[in-house]
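Reviewer 2 asked us to include a model.

Predict the structure of this chain.
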Amino acid sequence: MTTVVHVAAGALIDPDGNILLAQRHQDSHQGGLWEFPGGKLEPDESAAIGLVRELHEELGIDVVAHRPLIRVRHDYDDRSVLLDVHVVTAWQGEPVGREGQPLAWVRPENLGDYPMPAADVPIVTALQLPPVYLITPPQIRNAEDFMRQLDKALDAGVRLLQLRLFDLAEDELLHIGREVCNVCHVRDARVLFNGSPRLAAAMGADGLHLNSRQLHQWSHERTSADGLIAASCHTLQDLRQAEAVGADFALLSPVMPTRSHPDAEPLGWARFADWVDSAKLPVYALGGMHNGLLKTAWAHGAQGIAGIRGLWNDESSG
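Predicted model (structure tokens):
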């Protein structure tokens, strides 16, 4: 049986949004690559305690505030690792490479410029995604009200939107899609279109959101021009399929009872956490979500929360 090396790692984020990377020593496993500081847990040591200890030993800092970000299991040819990664937002002391390792503060969008171990790829994605994924209502009764509500959501901090609209003629869908993309891009927010790749490209969306049917029919070879790819998942099989097609992140639902799907059996937080723990990509919790559940979602392994009713009219969605 393969021994799994359990590692606690910290993504330190400074007040300007820069993220700290450390370079591995050349003679170590994956030597020369960049990583998020941390190290192997002691026997029976929790991730939170190990994180504080490791960052003090490696960087000379005392952690003040942190929260879970993502857990990643990865199998290399010579070993398996389980990375327990936390976002660290406050600490005492100035980080220095106490073991002689070079350090670099990097903008989130530039993390891909630093060669990293394969296990760190989902961590980079998680750091580049916001905690809230807003989904538009499926019907537009009044276009002015729709755009007004979108403005309020952007004002409140929403930076990732799924455009999901039904029962519109193609020309009308393209018109409002382009307007939504323009408004969002001015505010540094990204838009994923729930629909065809052709329409997503035509309206200037930043990527595609695959519904369950598209997910299991998807055979497109990923390219850099695709932008973000997200997937709606309801089962463990769906999550495996999302990983197989190279999705950047997934939604898993329904976690809680919802008015839109009253007959669907909720997963509950325990099952959600169990399924997400085995996932190799960031996963948002969907179904009955509102901003008051964000910390609960983080505690159960989620990237954050996604929703329509609980977030669209919530001015604190950020």
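The first strand starts at residue 4 and ends at 12. Residues 240 and 279 are 8 Å apart (CA to CA). We have added this to the supplementary material.
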